Structures
1.
Amino acid sequence: NAGVTQTPKFRVLKTGQSMTLLCAQDMNHEYMYWYRQDPGMGLRLIHYSVGEGTTAKGEVPDGYNVSRLKKQNFLLGLESAAPSQTSVYFCASSSRALDYEQYFGPGTRLTVT
Amino acid sequence: EDQVTQSPEALRLQEGESSSLNCSYTVSGLRGLFWYRQDPGKGPEFLFTLYSAGEEKEKERLKATLTKKESFLHITAPKPEDSATYLCAVQAGGSARQLTFGSGTQLTVLP
């Protein structure tokens, strides 16, 4: 039981490049989330999903897109990376019944130069 | 707009020296307040849920309490392995899934 896994762990992009972050969970959770964590700002929700094929915007969605084609996977895409997107990205999942008890992945550290 | 403020930003304690971390919040219709622990280089790990003023939860050396405006995380006789960043989050009644996190308190317990 791996819990929540994220790939890659580290990535360096140049401004304007694109990439996709992959999140996978094996707990059969209905809900999945993408957060970014910046120094002094706490975790901020980017997008979330309440089920396969559904997504919704969080607090800071601009510049990101997401897809949830399978229940266990949640992808976060950056179409044209900007230096302001330099951050640590965390994926999380939770059950519908306990949506506040979120299980987090280990994070992806992204640097955009 | 929901807001969560944690203090202090950093706290250094000697092993065995008890203290408290503070989380003050403003939220429209609190559904719940949550404490998470985050170790360096890892994702946050869920600790406690508090729903109403006066409620308390305990786990080993940690005890969380809640009032109408703030929550405290009391650490009794801490050990070096308690060193971590402690995050507080709130969930408002209207946003069933979104948590608003504070920026955390980085706790260091020295042996």
2.
Amino acid sequence: IAGITQAPTSQILAAGRRMTLRCTQDMRHNAMYWYRQDLGLGLRLIHYSNTAGTTGKGEVPDGYSVSRANTDDFPLTLASAVPSQTSVYFCASSPTGEETQYFGPGTRLLVL
Amino acid sequence: AQSVTQPDIHITVSEGASLELRCNYSYGATPYLFWYVQSPGQGLQLLLKYFSGDTLVQGIKGFEAEFKRSQSSFNLRKPSVHWSDAAEYFCAVGILTGGGNKLTFGTGTQLKVEL
């Protein structure tokens, strides 16, 4: 069982380019989340999805979009990347009725 | 809105010494509280959690935390630190929302262990 996988592991991206960060879980968790981690700011919630077909905005959603076509996948898209989106991005998931979130290994993104 | 404060950005302790990492939260109702640990270049691993009941919770790797409602605190403790405990520690408060759980994290405490 892999748990949560994220791809790519790291990426350097030119400003203005479109980028999709992939997240896949094999635990059949209903809820999934995207966070960004920045030095001195901890982790901040970007978007979340309580179940397939539904999504919601977190604390810092601007410039990001998500979709949840099925239970396993929760991609995060940057439509037109900007340098302020340089960060480490973590995907997480949790079972319905279970408050614990399980985290993926992260994607390190540098926008130049 | 909920918030979490970890007042110590960096802490250095000697191996074998005791450890306490502070966490204060702000939330209107009874919170769900978590401590996660992050080793360099890694994701977050759950150390322990508090939902209800006994206010002293035990976690993995010999860690424990105590929920004190009167102080709005959830401090993490370990009686004897090992060099492998060097990492960054995050406290988080969660609220349930329609089947999911939205976490708000503190800014983290970086732990250094001197041999």
